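Input sequence (169 aa), recorded before submission:
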Amino acid sequence: MTMDGRTGPPLTGGERETLRAYLDYHRATLARKCEGLGDEELRRASMPPSTLSLLGLVRHMAEVERHWFRRTVGGADVPHLWSDRHDFQAAYDASGSTRAEAFAAWEAEVAHSREVEAAAESLEVRAHVAKWGEDASLRLVMLHMINEYARHNGHADFLREALDGAVGD
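Predicted structure, token format:
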């Protein structure tokens, strides 16, 4: 099912297919919120004291994709993209960033995430989540990512509306 140029989840698909589609739908929604905007608009912060911006959200989601799929499920020992201190919040500071830099990183991490997920034998594949102190399934990681995107896409809705009045998901 295609909606606004984005592919929505199948109405009768299997669990893994549906999770993939929902995650990709939310990824496409974040990209859509940034369409047609230049670097300055994408960097514009919501309102003081917050530094939240659309570009900051893209950078943050690149970091989140990297963490959950590359590090957690994939087991790779890779550094944070924008922090030497393992600080996820550092990605939000997009004051010196560009669309090209942020989107290149995000798109690369999304592509890698898709590879990690596709290579997993099943949704039952488990990985240790250090901050939770226990293992979690790929299923839970995908659901967590859908939740993360859905929450931040809500922020993106407000940010975009404040920039130019554009509304809708």
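Checked by second reader. Residues 33 and 156 are 6 Å apart (CA to CA).
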